[in-house]
Amino acid sequence: MPSPYPSVDRISQYAVILTLTQSYGRTAVMDAIRAVLADHRADRDAQSAAPFGETEICEAVRSWLMERSTPSLRRLFNLTGTVLHTNLGRARLSQAAIDHAIMAMGEACNLEFDLETGQRGERDSLVEGLLTELTGAEAATVVNNNAAAVLLTLAGVAQKRQVVVSRGELIEIGGSFRIPDVMRSANVRLIEVGTTNRTHKADFANGIGPSTAALMKVHASNYVIQGFTAAVSEADMADVAHAHGLPLIVDLGAGSLIDLSAYGLPKEPVVADIIKAGADLVTFSGDKLLGGPQAGLIVGKKALIDRINRHPLKRALRVSKLTLAALEATLMAYRHSERLTQDLPTLRLLTRPIADIEAIAQRVQPHLSAALGPDWQVTIQPVFSQVGSGSLPIDVIPSMALVCTFAQKKSGSAFKALTARLRQLPIPIIGRVTDNSLILDLRCLEEEGDFVDQLQRLDLKPSR
Ligand SMILES: *Cc1c(COP(=O)(O)O)cnc(C)c1O
């Protein structure tokens, strides 16, 4: 039986297809033609085929090509209310950090070249000065993320020896980062002391033996222990460690460079305070409260940082020039503290006045209401945002949200359809769903025009 379709070669000569070939390239267009013909053939076998003349073929090829050329990694609106959302990319970079990273991407640069001596340089020295200046530490090194920082720190200073940790701090951060597992991967023997709710100074002293290499404190990032509790402060742990000639390691997780409570935000540990309290090594993330690129920062005593840098894992965990460029510009912003809450998006969003958020809510509410139609009710309500990324879940910041509820009782499938449509937009909108409402926390909405634009594309019916 003769094929009901024109040949692939013939199709490739259609005027529209020739234009598409200029945009997408011949290989992609030929793949597209074969794919749409195969799809149609399958539909025909299933007796569900639509007509397939020149116009339909060209349209099918165009949409196949367009779909394939949409990148997987896309911009979206984070309206979850969690400002530093690990699944949504954590910190957004400052313009200065973006510009500096672009320079490093496109140009040759002195990544490992000392411009003064003309000799080979060290990549970490590009940011070490800023990190020591901002934390009061003697030395600093940079790796790919804080999980890597903890792993390398342990491997560098305690390999094949013991590290003493409170049972109240044997945490899991998520994504399988668990302190006991990290210890094992670093070839370090974990010595647990104290109990889940109470650990005392003497517990640490008693946990130290001949093969102890360090004491370690882990910031309880994502949970709280309340009630009959006791933990040992960094200063007291440093006392015990130093009395035995051992270093104190502190994994801070979020670790801020400034006191956030000065901006009315929940208090988070400040790296410089932990160094002042006597910690010998402190690890923290670059893309949490710091507001920079994904990175793990290790600051502390020079002799210990030197040892860490000599460990073979350092080479495997080191960061790229993009990270260093973005980190350097981010750290430089901290020198101009009056401008910090404008320049760093993380701090700008966390400190955003509630009146601003409410004003946005007032302006966009009619657009959302119109887009959702009469089946939905859209109200403006006070909610609480979270800092996210290992800041305490009980530390919340008042915010304002658009709250969508469904008019009819049975709303489960309507919510599924709505959130799916919001995810399918050219710039997806991600909110949070509670029992029977969809909450769009507007704290992180800055590009209002683009948002309204998306709402106008929201066509709820065809997806049903
Ligand atoms: C977030 C966190 C980590 C992991 O940091 P990443 O930068 O995500 O690798 C480790 N320890 C603590 C205490 C944290 O809060």
Kindly report the average pLDDT value.
Answer: 93
Per CATH, the superfamily of the largest domain is: Type I PLP-dependent aspartate aminotransferase-like (Major domain)
SS class: alpha/beta
Number of domains: 3
Reported for the largest beta sheet, the result is: 7 strands, mixed
Radius of gyration from the alpha-carbon trace, in angstroms: 28 Å
Could you give the distance between the termini?
39 Å
Ligands and ions found: pyridoxal-5'-phosphate
How many helices in DSSP terms?
19
Structure write-up:
- By secondary structure, this protein is of the alpha/beta class.
- It folds into 3 domains: 8-69, no CATH class; 77-86 and 350-456, Aspartate Aminotransferase, domain 1 (Alpha-Beta Complex); 95-339, Type I PLP-dependent aspartate aminotransferase-like (Major domain) (Aspartate Aminotransferase, domain 2, 3-Layer(aba) Sandwich), CATH 3.40.640.
- 42% of the residues lie in helices and 16% in strands.
- The protein contains 19 helices and 13 strands.
- The chain has helices at 8-12, 15-24, 26-45, 54-68, 95-106, 125-135, 146-158, 179-185, 201-207, 234-243, 271-276, 302-310, 312-317, 321-333, 340-343, 345-350, 354-372, 412-424, 448-457; strands at residues 77-78, 139-143, 162-166, 189-193, 212-218, 248-253, 281-285, 296-300, 376-386, 396-406, 429-430, 432-434, 437-441.
- It has a 7-stranded mixed beta sheet with strand order 2-8-7-6-5-3-4, sandwiched between helices.
- A hairpin with a 2-residue loop joins β12 and β13.
- The radius of gyration is 28 Å and the shape is globular.
- It starts with 7 loop residues before the first helix and ends in a 7-residue tail after the last helix.
- The model has no long low-confidence stretch (mean pLDDT 93).
- The structure holds pyridoxal-5'-phosphate.
- The site of pyridoxal-5'-phosphate (PLP) has 15 residues, from α7 and β6.
